[in-house]
Write the structure tokens for this entry.
Amino acid sequence: MIWDFEFTVEAMPDLLSGLWVTVQVTILGYLIALSLGLLIAVVRRVRVVGPLVHGVMEFIRTTPLVVQLVFVFLLTPSVISGMTVGIVVLGVHYSAYTAEVYRSGIEGVAKGQWEAARALSLPASRTWGAIVLPQAIRKVIPALGNYLIAMFKDTPLLLAIGVAELLTQARRIGSASFQVVEAYTLVGFLFLAVSIPSAILIRRLERRYAAV
Amino acid sequence: MPPSDTPSAETPQGGSGQPQIVFDQVVKRFGDLTVLDHLDFSVEPGERVTLIGPSGSGKTTILRLLMTLEKVTEGHIHVAGEPFSHMRRGGHLVPASESYLRRRRRSIGMVFQQFNLFPNMTVRKNVIEAPVHVLGLSKDEANQRAEELLDLVGLGDKIDAHPTQLSGGQQQRVAIARALAMRPDILLLDEVTSALDPELVAGVLDVLRQVAETTDITMLCVTHEMGFARDVSHRVLMFDKGQIAEEGPPEQIFEDPREDRTKSFLRSVLDNGF
């Protein structure tokens, strides 16, 4: 077959708007994953509540993301957009993973740091906020960055709930024009165009923080 | 500003004849291992006591109990005439709650073997953190206190450095300044020179000698530095198997030990070149 450049130019605006949705979903979902995951990692150390939260997170990790997306989408009232559902579900799903990352970071903080904080009678808010978390987070920045890319690559699942992200757009364009190969190839390139620079950026962060 | 209910360092409860620290039949077990076995001893205000003995004899556990890093299994600890490991409730002594401990342990400071400075903070931040956030000092007051103390330990020029940029000896001197910034009545020193290269030990010990000479802080010191123990302490407690094997003034313990266990311990320490 021959590559149709005219089609490429025609399809670009729709594909780019799809990419924009994908990027928005990724960034907003990632912000949820980062903050909720941190909260979960801290709460997991609390008695009674901790194991409960852990159970819920295990459940989220062991069920498929696409099922969670469809399930939540069907349960929410239709005034809430698919995109909002997608952002929240992706964010919550990934918070189950980031929580584990934070947890390993917290456990990596030397016991002596906790003891020194206690010896100085620091309140829990300072022990966590000024001593433990800054050290823990610094160590896990590279690992957290990897989940940003993983999440970006999971956004096509939003196709299942009809969000006009990149893959949904490509499928629409592809089936309308029957130029399926071009449409999906372009999707591949557009994903690469975002994820390769992100990966380089993350590797740079890794080098900067992991050394410490 | 939170109430500052800790007695200030300038007014130790001396003269009242009341011991500052009392261990009353204290037992500490870790699983099946008995580390402290019905231990009784007391320390007077302003007294400097050195704890010596073979490793595993419970010396460090005593400091950790006082810093509330461990809880007693049995028995009671009193500090400044008030229950410390326990608190009074309805005429009974019950195990102390976290909030009670938080209030009571403010009068106690500790310096650790591994320094335990906060690596994500500058030297200044390390020293002012607790005075600002626990004692409620203003930034200015805390900074002034930090500058004075860092000058005292000879590191005034390192105030904006990060701990990782300092040698072990310097880090330990910062840790001493950090503990003193809380103006504790009691200072616990847990093998503070054991993790240091030999050439850095003297600097840290000089700082502690100076603290001992210029303040009346009660000091409990676990150390293998027998010269330092002899110079600084009023009393030496020799521990063995969770009990006090022998106690006395440093001259007597070091020159004329009565117990065989003390003799053999001192011999082994000296042989190892401490």
Notes: Residues 1-14 of chain B have pLDDT under 50 and may be disordered. The interface with chain A takes residues 67-69, 102, 105-106, 108-110, 112, 114-121, 129-130, 133-134, 178-179, 182 of chain B (CB under 8 Å).
